[in-house]
Specification:
mainly alpha, 2 strands, elongated
């Protein structure tokens, strides 16, 4: 084992691998959730013939806050991007 700066490198790599594994699992779990959310938002826009900004402006504060959190949260960003790509591939116009 190499020692560098007071931390054993094996321990450093183990912690990094653990964090990467947790993020991977979170992403896998969140892809279907984000996909359903994107699908529901697109259906809402089409149903009411509104643009995305108009739909968000009419949301109650709590719902708008949750929407912003699910779309911008760095923890969910990979899942959101993958779900968006899957949605666009399945619903080409």
């Amino acid at each position: 084992m190499l020692h560098k700066g007071g931390i054993y490198l094996n321990e450093f790599y183990s912690v990094g691998l653990l964090i990467a594994s947790v993020l991977f699992v979170i992403t896998l779990v969140m892809i279907p959730v984000q996909y359903r959310y994107i699908k529901a938002m697109e259906e809402e826009k089409e149903k009411h013939k509104r643009k995305a900004g108009e739909v968000f402006d009419e949301m109650p504060f709590g719902e708008a806050f949750l929407h912003q959190n699910t779309q911008i949260n760095p923890l969910f960003l990979p899942a959101n991007l993958i779900a968006y790509i899957i949605y666009r591939l399945k619903h080409k116009k």
